UniProtKB/TrEMBL annotation, chain A:
Sorted UniProt keywords: DNA-directed RNA polymerase, Nucleus, Transcription
Name of protein: DNA-directed RNA polymerase subunit
Family annotation (InterPro entries): RNA_pol_Rpb7-like_N_sf, Rpb7-like
Biased composition (Basic and acidic residues): 196-205
General function of this protein: DNA-dependent RNA polymerase which catalyzes the transcription of DNA into RNA using the four ribonucleoside triphosphates as substrates.
Localization annotation: Nucleus
Top-level taxon of the source organism: Eukaryota
Gene3D superfamilies: 2.40.50.1060, RNA polymerase Rpb7-like, N-terminal domain
Disordered: annotated segments: 196-227
Keyword Electron transport: no
GO biological process, alphabetically ordered: DNA-templated transcription initiation; transcription elongation by RNA polymerase I
Naturally occurring in which organism (per UniProt): Gossypium davidsonii (Davidson's cotton)
Keyword Transcription among record annotations: yes
TrEMBL record, chain B:
Gene source species: Gossypium tomentosum (Hawaiian cotton)
Protein's recorded name: RNA polymerase I-specific transcription initiation factor RRN3
GO MF, one annotated term: RNA polymerase I core binding
GO BP term (any one): transcription initiation at RNA polymerase I promoter
Pfam family, one: RRN3
Length: 227, 628
């Protein structure tokens, strides 16, 4: 999945003198307050951090309140989706008009009907709503499916993504990865899933890539909530 | 599914068509899209339907419902700039004006809008929050059955909508929190909107997104309680009559003093009377009752311990630091009463910890020990062992302090010490009987205490005279220790020395858990509260006193009297054994309780019941159903 990056940052954090009693707690609290918010300096949403104090000595600023500046070195996990990036998320709601997705457990994305390629038809099967591909019977998108989609725009304040399923590389991840090599030379009639069984080993198990980030996110989310 | 629309725009009135849902949706989409090309007709008709809200005929209701549903399906076509009149019409709608079906459709539309685009999220959440309170004309109807039904309808949909939005937009609760806190009505709002708003806030706390927003909301509620509390001036409550000791300053009448035909004899501080017309007090009363009921439901759901942690933090940050909070602290009292072993002890321990910490500022430490003293004295639900362990901590600290400081009497320099001593004496005034009967406690507690009291720092001279007097009187009667000097205070409440240690804030006369003067709150607190009249001082073991003031002997607890009149006629003069008392043994405690120890009052007492026709003003029928 694109959009995730780990950055090394040299930071200077200015703390109010009242925080001098417990500096490490204050640092964690300050960084914690930045979590899940878009930060212009980092150009991304801070998801997780690991921080070290570089220098035990801090410079005191002159002024009404003598803030002191700490030099820190931090490892930051950032999320910065840009247009035309491919993201992965889980479908939580599906209707004829739109598909609603949640990315990394915290960011919501919407794909409206006009951004879904014509290949997908809205169907109701046994009271379950889904989008099924006209050309590939097994390519189905319903609530709970992990899908890969293209970013059209990203609202930095609400962390809301507008996505699209127009490109051929988008759709249900399980199906896409199974048929990865065939995507470019797709021929409707000659394809039989039976012949492609050997590609099945390359299936992304739905857990691995997004889930490990999910766990990471859940941890930092927990940390945020307890703070 | 087909739908019948007799008056849909652009149709001739006589024609009735059946449309499918998707046809209606595409019609609406067209209307929306046409605005971009300049044709506003159908769009304006749509907006018109939204604005029409009062006195709707059934077909208009159906039209509104259909339009809302269609809009929900067409949210992707709504543009924030071109369709701003439609959006503002939607966001101004109040679910309180409509029946369940329209409310459902409106909720659905709001949810769809919120999740469709980040730009609408805050506006949608704001609209839902504004539906916490009904429109002004509806506020009076809230008490009636129709009003209550509508309230249940609207609030359930609003809170369900929050949950749905949170399901699809995980960060929504965070934004909701900001919006809820910003939208809190101020205490100066003439309409009592704040009560229903706080009700909604508490509902959020116990609801499905409660885990994410709960603690911040609770702290905001306590903040608001304190804001109201400080608006009630102390002068509205206290009278200047300090001639009687504080132990007579008890307000125990359940009923309004205003109902009395005879003028008040002047014994009681007319606190409740002067508060009666006070609208802020009424508001605070209502909010406190809401909070109590919420705590009860937390306890039923088994969440009280977690909620209590938040309350504890909020208490330290807000209540403790407020200047002499009057009633807001009863929230803690009630929470402790609901769970004496955990929460009750946790509260006491926290206060004691604050007191002994040198790093805390002086006023905080003095405040904390005042709270502790008042709490240990007044909490009926605390076990004697808990009280004694707390007292022991205080006594040990005071003893250590004495040994470390070799100075003479100096109220200013040793303020914390004197407030600690006063606290110990105050608690013992209420609970001395307990310690007298247990020899181990006597040695553990009273011997070090004697050392403290006889030290050069001379707390007996500095602490509040009325407390010292009562304490010495009881100590003498129980033969606890001998005091070399006699202290004659002439029943003074306070002295110069006590004022000195109390400081500007007068923390020497701060007894935070004195009887609650707010009527509705009081009815919650009463069963777990120790009134001074319920205490059997050690000197009353002796035969009756002859200097029996008319006024002061009448410190009966009204509702106990009325609820248990048959019990009152016997069991007089039995010793009050506090050790066995807890909330469950309420009736048992009543049986054991001595209402007044004086033989002369016994007679009066019996006399009263034998001659109901001549009920004096002090006794009035209580408001409880079981009474006369």
């Amino acid at each position: 999945m694109e959009g995730l990056s780990v950055a090394d940052a040299n930071l200077v954090m200015y703390l109010h003198p009242s925080k001098s009693r417990n500096v490490s707690q204050s640092i964690l609290r300050e960084l914690g307050s930045l979590l899940f918010k878009f930060n212009e300096t980092f150009d991304g949403v801070l998801l997780a951090y690991d921080v070290n104090i570089l220098d035990k000595q801090a410079k005191i600023l002159s002024g009404v309140h003598p803030y002191f500046g700490l030099r820190l070195k931090a490892n930051l996990l950032l999320f910065s989706p840009k247009p035309d990036m491919l993201l992965e998320g889980k479908v939580v709601k599906l209707s004829q008009e739109s598909i609603h997705v949640i990315v990394l457990g915290f960011s919501s994305a919407i794909i409206t009907a006009e951004n879904i390629r014509g290949e997908f038809k809205y169907r109701t099967k046994d009271t379950e709503e889904l989008f099924a591909s006209k050309s590939h019977k097994r390519h189905v998108i319903k609530v709970g499916t992990m899908i890969r989609f293209l970013v059209k725009s990203f609202d930095e304040e609400i962390l809301h993504i507008i996505g699209s399923l127009i490109s051929a590389h988008t759709g249900s991840i399980r199906w896409l990865d199974r048929h990865l090599e065939e995507d470019s030379e797709f021929d409707r009639s000659s394809m039989k899933s039976r012949d492609r069984e050997w590609l099945g080993d390359k299936t992304v198990d739905e857990g691995a890539t997004p889930m490990s980030y999910d766990n990471h996110i859940k941890m930092s989310k927990k940390r945020r909530i307890t703070e | 599914m087909g739908l019948e629309l007799p008056k849909y725009p652009e149709m001739e009135e006589d024609q009735v068509f059946n449309f499918t849902d998707s046809e209606i949706v595409s019609h609406v989409k067209q209307a929306l899209a046409s605005v971009l090309s300049g044709d506003n007709n159908s769009y304006n008709q749509l907006v018109g339907v939204m604005h029409h809200s009062k006195h709707l005929a059934p077909d208009e209701v159906a039209l509104l419902e259909t339009t809302l549903k269609a809009l929900a399906g067409a949210v992707s076509s709504i543009d924030i700039t071109y369709h701003d009149s439609l959006l503002s019409a939607i966001f101004c709608m109040s679910m309180w004006n409509y029946g369940p079906h329209v409310a459902d459709a409106l909720a659905e539309l709001i949810v769809s809008l919120a999740i469709s685009n980040g730009k609408y999220l805050d506006l949608c959440l704001g609209m839902l929050v504004s539906n916490f309170t009904p429109p002004p004309y509806f506020l009076d109807k809230l008490k009636m059955p129709h009003g209550l039904e509508r309230k249940g309808q609207v609030l359930s949909r609003v809170h369900a909508a929050f949950k749905k939005i949170a399901d699809y937009v995980p960060l929504a609760p965070l934004r909701l929190l900001t919006i809820v806190l910003q939208g809190m009505p101020t205490i100066y709002h003439k309409d009592r909107a704040i009560v229903i708003y706080v009700e909604n806030m508490l509902k959020l706390e116990s609801g499905e997104i409660g885990e994410l927003v709960g603690s911040t909301i609770l702290m905001a509620v306590v903040d608001r309680l304190i804001e109201l509390d400080v608006e009630i001036g102390w002068d509205a409550i206290l009278q200047d009559d300090f001639s009687k000791g504080i132990f007579e300053m008890e307000l125990e009448d359940v009923d309004d003093i205003e109902e009395s035909a005879e003028p008040d004899v002047g014994e009681f501080r007319l606190s409740r009377k002067s508060l009666a017309g006070n609208s802020i007090a009424e508001l605070l009363d209502n909010l406190l009752v809401l909070t109590f009921e919420h705590l009860e439901s937390c306890e039923r759901e088994g969440r009280l311990a977690k909620v209590f942690e938040t309350l504890l933090q909020s208490f330290q940050v807000t209540v403790l630091s407020a200047y002499k909070s009057k009633f807001a602290q009863f929230v803690m009292f009630y929470a402790c009463a609901l769970d004496p072993e955990n929460c009750g002890m946790r509260f006491a321990t926290m206060l004691a910890d604050l007191f002994v910490q040198d790093s805390q500022p002086q006023p905080t430490r003095m405040s904390a020990v005042s709270y502790l003293a008042s709490y240990l004295s007044r909490a009926k639900f605390l076990a004697a062992s808990s009280i004694s362990s707390m007292l022991k901590r205080l006594v040990d600290w005071c003893l250590e302090y004495c040994e470390a400081h070799d100075g003479d009497i100096n109220p200013n320099a040793h303020r914390v010490f004197y407030s600690g001593c006063q606290a110990i004496m105050y608690v013992l005034c209420f609970r001395m009987k307990v310690f007298v009967d247990v020899p181990r406690l006597k040695s553990e507690l009273l011997i070090p205490l004697e050392q403290v009291l006889k030290h050069k720092l001379n707390p007996l001279k500095v602490c509040l005279p009325s407390v010292v007097e009562e304490f010495l009187r009881q100590a003498k009667a129980a033969s606890l220790f001998t005091v070399c000097k006699t202290f004659i205070f002439d029943g003074l409440l306070e002295s110069e020395l006590s004022r000195a240690f109390g400081g500007l804030e007068r923390l020497d006369t701060f007894f935070p858990f004195d009887p609650c003067l707010l009527k509705k709150c009081d009815s919650f607190i009463r069963p777990m509260f120790v009134f001074w009249s319920m205490v059997k001082p050690t000197y009353d073991d002796a035969f009756d006193d002859d200097d029996d003031d008319d006024g002061s002997s009448d410190d009966l607890v009204q509702d106990f009297v009325n609820e248990n009149e048959d019990i009152m006629n016997d069991e007089f003069g039995k010793s009050f054994d506090e050790q066995g008392v807890d909330m469950d043994d309420f009736d048992y405690a009543l049986k054991k309780m001595s209402i007044t120890p004086k033989a002369t009052s016994n007679y009066k007492f019996g006399g009263r019941f034998q001659e109901p026709a001549r009920m004096p003003s002090r006794i009035r029928p209580s408001t409880s159903p079981e009474s006369l």
